[in-house]
Amino acid sequence: AAVVGPMKPGSALFRASQATMTVSISVFLYEGFAYNIIYLGRILPAVGKQALILPFAIFFNVIWGLAIWSYVRAHFSDPGRVPEKWRDFVRAIGDALPVVPARPEWQPGKATYCKKCDLPRPERAHHCLLCEVCVLRMDH
Prior knowledge:
By secondary structure, this protein is of the alpha+beta class. The protein has helices at about 10-45, 55-75, 85-95; strands at about 100, 110-115, 120, 125-130, 135. A three-stranded mixed sheet has the order 1-2-3. Strands 4-5 form a two-stranded antiparallel ribbon. The chain starts with 11 loop residues before the first helix and ends with a strand.
């Protein structure tokens, strides 16, 4: 699906998102440099703790690598759009699907209508103003 709305490539929001990710990755890289080069390479040897360098390096770099991997995976993951199976279900059911007006509180077992997408959406789905799509559980 083509990206539309404020997050399309070239838009101000897209550029801000890319800038935020660049700054975050830069902080991760600086942190790795500072710990590995400064602390492990200079400080520990200067105080006579060479035996701690390898275990500290392994422990830090495993956690550091997992943190970077998690950040990148989260940044590029799908926000949880309403699946196409739901739209197929809505088309198949037609008017037999009870759709209630959207309210701020949770409405268990009830589909609501999205005015922006002009489609019924499943329970707990909300319209994301940044992505301009309905997102399940609105957790981003």
